[in-house]
# Entry
Amino acid sequence: MRLTRYFLPVLKENPAEAQIVSHRLMLRAGMMKQATSGIYSWLPLGFKVLRKLENIVHEEQMRAGHHPMLMPTLQSADLWRESGRYDDYGQEMLRITDRHGRDMLYGPTNEELITDIFRAHVASYKDLPLTLYHIQWKFRDEIRPRFGVMRGREFLMKDGYNFDLTKEDALHAYNRHLVSYLRTYERMGLQAIPMRADSGPIGGDDTHEFLVLAETGESEVFYDAEITELKFGDREIDYSDCAQCQAVLEEFTSRYARTDETHDAALFDAIPEDRRRVARGIEVGQIFYFGTKYSEPMGATVQGPDGKPVPVHMGSHGIGVSRLVGAIIEASHDERGIIWPEGVTPFHVGIVNLKVGDAEADAASEELYAALTAKGLEPLYDDTDERAGGKFATMDLIGLPWRITVGPRGLKNGVVELTSRRTGESEELSPDAAVDRLVQIYAPHMVRGL
Ligand code: 5CA
# Structure
């Protein structure tokens, strides 16, 4: 992409309405614009990040054996009357009446809709286990939408639903989700800690929230400092192996880590004092096992091995995809702007041409652009005639992890400059070597998605 052709409406001033850094930086970097309270338009740069996150989620869900699909945003109230949640959900649910006077709603979550699909098409235990998921916009009429995409009213969620014959099988699905979520967040450059939580309107007793530690987080969290040393890394996992998944769950949840909703002071105080931490966190996901809470009232049964109908055991599993954009920025920025982790950056590298109009600098920039593109990388080429300082400030603000600076002086010696946004360190090397280096850096981060 060439900056002269792109739509990147960066703001010079800090928008007054933004109270936290991610909100401020998303507005300043031209990633989004508020449409109305808690509802945002995603501008091209923000949309690219959102799609990157979706693609990582898809890859990790499919790796775990879960099937992508797409359900609508609008649902009929009838299904929610069957589960008994239509009245329970209260004012957070946006209720709509169509022209025929039928009650509709904008889905805040999809347990009912997916259970309806399941009961229509699955009749035998032989078709289990089954996990279906989608990434779709949700609406919750939050009483206090705030912090930009962090607490929106309309927001993008990955929600997955497992159907199993027994509680044991459903708990394996729970564990599988926990493992796949650990991998997902790490690929996004985040440490998200599973914490025992409260299940709220979704229901059930088994539930973990995934929290990214950040001062601006809305949840108060209590944990054993040892937990922050755990890393999933690139270890192999066989998702069909119950013992392996269970071992990961135990590894990542055996130390104390709870949100304020389930905090137990006595258990917490049993941890050695120097390891006790009280902090704040951003909830970027939650997994639930709720047994037959929906399958029973909605008649989602399968024929068991003995020929008798049994209600299926279910769970649901959510990732706050749009919230993650904010969470990543909260976890990775400095006073100059965003610092995207390689796995989610909207462009892989910025090319800054210091002297647009200079034949050699133009040619070298164009060649770099073509070479990077040929290797499957996406450069953002600043081909504007702004002064160098302004170009650097924009690149720093939008946070691409790498920048190549092309100028007549370096080109005389056959070099360009490769700069890391994170460390600020620069290195002079030939354009070819710069391309090779970037190919190497990004090899583990290439995302295909669906
Ligand atoms: N049906 C279940 C799992 S699919 C469910 O709805 N879970 S949830 O309520 O925990 O939501 C899943 C994730 O969506 C949360 O962990 C959070 O990251 C994100 N989320 C929830 N509410 C909002 C909101 N108002 N704005 C942005 N993200 C939100």
Residues 167-187 form the longest helix (21 residues). Residues 129 and 164 are 5 Å apart (CA to CA).
